Amino acid sequence: MGRRILMRWFGLFLIAAGVIWIAFSFNSANLAWGNMIPFNTKEINIEREVPMSGVQNLLVDSVSTNVNVIQGSSNQIKVRLSGRISPKYVDTIDLKVAPQGDALKLGVNLPDGMNWGLLNLDMNVELPEKLWKSVKVETKSGDVKLAQTKGDSIDVKSSSGDIQLSQVQAKSATIHAASGNVKMKNVESNQITLQASSGNLVVDDFKSDELAFTAGSGNVKLSGGQSKIKGEASTGDIQLELNSLLQDTDLKAGSGNVTVHMEKEPQSLAVDYRGGSGKGHIQWNGMKYEENAENVIRGSYGSGEVKLKVRISSGDFTLGKG
C-alpha cells in the first residue's frame, strides 16, 4: 500500500514538473518559443486614406493577414491594419499603399526574416460606393470577407483560409480556396466560377447566367438561386435546393451523393442519370421513362426543354421534393 501511495505522489510530481517546464519554455525570451505571438504581444493600429480620383482597379495582396473589404461611407479609400504582434516588429511593419495609374495595390510591408505564419493581423478596407473595373483579393494564410461590392471583375483567392462573399454584383466572379471553405450569399454575376480543393462550397441566394464549380474533398450546396450549372466534386456530396430547375444543369460526382431538391413540380425537365455502384431515386410523379434501372434513369417531364445530367461513380442520386 505504501509503495502505491509513493508511486502516485511521484506521478503527480512528474506532471507538475512538466507543466512548469512548458510554461517556462513558452515565456522565456531566450528560447525560440518565446517569440510566438500569443504570449508577448503589443497592439498595433495603422490607418491610411487614399484619394479615390482615377482609381478603377483594386488589388489587395496580403501574405498572412485576414482581409475584410466592405463599402464605406466616404469618398476616400480607407485602409486599417490592426491586431497584435511581437513588440520587436512593431516599428518595422507597415501598410503598403501603391498607386499605379488607375490601379491601387494594397498590402503589408513585413521585415525581412519575419515568420509571417505567426501573425495575428486584420486588414480592413473601406471602399466608396462605385462600379469597379476589377477587384482582386489574394491572401496566403488568412480569411477573406468581401461585401457590398460591385465590379466588372471580382477575383478572390486564399491558399489556406476561408472566403465569404455577400451582396456582391459583378459581370464575372472567380473564387478559389485551396484548403478553406467558400461561403457566398446574395451574389449576382453573369459568370460565377468556384474552386475549392479541400473545403466546402456553400452558395445561397444567387443569380447568374452560368455557375461552374470544382470541389476536391469538400461538399457543395447551392440553394435559393437560378443559373445554368455545371460542376464536379471528387469525394464530396453535391446538393441543390431550388424553387425550380429552369436552366440546364450538369453534375458529376466521384464518391459522393448528388441530390436535387425542388419546391415546385418539374414542368419541362429531361433527366439523364448514370451511376456506377449507386442508385437513382425519383420522388416526383409524372415522369415518362425511357429507361428506369437501378443505376440508369432516362426520362422527362413535359417537353423536357431543361436538361438535368448527372454522372456518379459510387454515390446515389435523388431528384426530390422541397
TrEMBL record:
Transmembrane segments: none annotated. Gene3D superfamilies: 2.160.20.120. Pfam families: DUF4097 (PF13349). InterPro entries: Toastrack_DUF4097. It comes from the Bacteria. Coiled coil: none annotated. Residues 151-319 form the DUF4097 domain. PANTHER family: PROTEIN FAM185A, PTHR34094. This is DUF4097 domain-containing protein.
